[in-house]
Design goal:
single chain; 147 residues; 2 strands; 6 helices; mainly alpha; two-stranded antiparallel sheet
Length: 147
C-alpha cells in the first residue's frame, strides 16, 4: 500500500490560494466582458479559442471541457449566426467549426475587451513570459509515487 502524500507546506497552500484567486479574477473578467457582447462566459471562451477552423473535439480541448459541453455552447453560437459547421476537408466523418463573418467580428471585439484591464495587465511582457513558463511547468504531467 502506498503511503499518503505529505500534506502541503504553508508555502504551497499560499501559492494554491494565489493561483485560485487569479483564476477567479480572470473568470470574472471574462464573464463581465462577455456580457458586454451578449455572450456567456463559455461562449466567449469558445470564440476566443476559435483561431481557425477546428473540430468539436479540438475546441473542447482548448476550452478544457467535455465535447458534449462544447457542443451545447456551439449550438447556441450557431443559432446566433456566429459559427457554422462545415464538412471537414479530409475526414468525411468530421465537421469543421468555422466562424461566420459576424462571428469573426465579434471575436475581434471580444479579444480587445479581454485585453483591456486584464487581471494580468499589471505584469510586463517579461513577467508574463516568466509566469507562463512557470505555469506550464506546474501543469506538466508528473509521474505519481509508485507509478
Amino acid at each position: 500500500m502506498t503511503p499518503p502524500p505529505p500534506p502541503p507546506t504553508p508555502a504551497e497552500r499560499v501559492l494554491c490560494g494565489l493561483v485560485s484567486g487569479l483564476a477567479q479574477r480572470i473568470e470574472g473578467h471574462v464573464r463581465e466582458r462577455a456580457g458586454r457582447l451578449g455572450l456567456t462566459a463559455p461562449q466567449a471562451t469558445a470564440l476566443r479559442e476559435m483561431s481557425g477552423p477546428m473540430t468539436m473535439r479540438e475546441l473542447a480541448e482548448r476550452m478544457s471541457c467535455e465535447p458534449s459541453n462544447a457542443t451545447f455552447v456551439v449550438d447556441r453560437l450557431e443559432k446566433e449566426g456566429l459559427v457554422e459547421r462545415r464538412p471537414h476537408p479530409t475526414d468525411r466523418r468530421a465537421r469543421h467549426l468555422v466562424l461566420t463573418a459576424e462571428g469573426a467580428e465579434r471575436r475581434e471585439r471580444l479579444l480587445v475587451l479581454l485585453a483591456t484591464d486584464s487581471p494580468l495587465a499589471g505584469l510586463d511582457d517579461a513577467q508574463q513570459s516568466a509566469l507562463r513558463t512557470l505555469l506550464r511547468q506546474a501543469l506538466e504531467d508528473r509521474p505519481t509515487a509508485g507509478g
